[in-house]
Specification:
Blueprint (H helix, E strand, L loop, with lengths): L1 E4 L6 E4 L2 E4 L2 E4 L4 H8 L7 E7 L4 E7 L7 E7 L2 E6 L11 E6 L6 E4 L4 E6 L4 E7 L8 E3 L21 H4 L4 H7 L5 H9 L4
Antiparallel strand pairs: 1-2, 2-10, 3-4, 5-12, 6-11, 6-13, 7-10, 7-12, 8-9, 8-11
Length: 199
């Protein structure tokens, strides 16, 4: 398992070994020992999610109210997607910065989102399936969004993609609006939750 540090503080890309032969292939997108060695924490998964999207679907930038907070481990089980991590944690040294990981069926890259980070992706093929391991259960009132097309963020939506948004994402607030409303996670609290002493 190869690990790459991303531009957003705490976010990581993992690339597992792929074992291919005449029958097909075998890959382990998540490996607990490698994850703990890279992050210093375990991933207490309480829910898994699965989404299927046609080409052009853009989901995000989604985040969970903190507390309770939520960490995510994401990979593309089918198709191809541009996965985007955005630092929306007030007080973070990389606040407002983002990075991307191309997820596909060649390298099977994955991304880890610590508590408090924003997540978005762009489906680059029809029937793109994204799988998530998350550390808290889905509670609708805790789920928030910042606009993917916020010019302050200037996220890299590919020029050859016609974006398809949900109504929720279409009307999402800007990063500045979210900060003014006081709904963005606090960096220090996110770190405490990650360590297990901030809930």
């Amino acid at each position: 398992m190869k690990v790459r540090t991303l531009a957003v503080q705490g976010a990581l890309e993992f690339t597992p070994d792929v074992f291919a032969d005449g029958r097909g292939l075998f890959v382990s997108p998540f490996q607990g020992t490698a994850f703990t060695e890279a992050t210093g924490v375990s991933l207490p998964v309480v829910q898994t999610n699965h989404s299927q999207s046609r080409r052009g679907v853009v989901r995000g930038v989604h985040f969970t109210a903190t507390p309770p907070g939520c960490a995510k481990y994401v990979y593309c089980a089918r198709g191809r997607a541009l996965d985007i991590v955005v630092d929306i944690r007030i007080g973070s040294p990389t606040f407002g910065q983002w990075d991307t990981v191309l997820m596909d069926q060649v390298d099977f890259r994955t991304m880890y989102f610590p508590v408090g980070l924003g997540h978005a992706f762009v489906a680059l093929e029809d029937d793109t399936v994204m799988s998530y391991m998350i550390t808290s259960e889905y509670v609708p009132s805790n789920e928030l969004a910042v606009s993917v097309v916020d010019p302050e963020l200037d996220l890299p939506i590919p020029a050859d993609v016609t974006p398809i948004f949900s109504e929720r994402d279409r009307v999402a607030m800007t990063l500045t609006e979210a900060a003014e409303r006081g709904v963005l996670p606090e960096y220090s609290q996110c770190l405490a939750i990650e360590r297990g002493d901030g809930r």
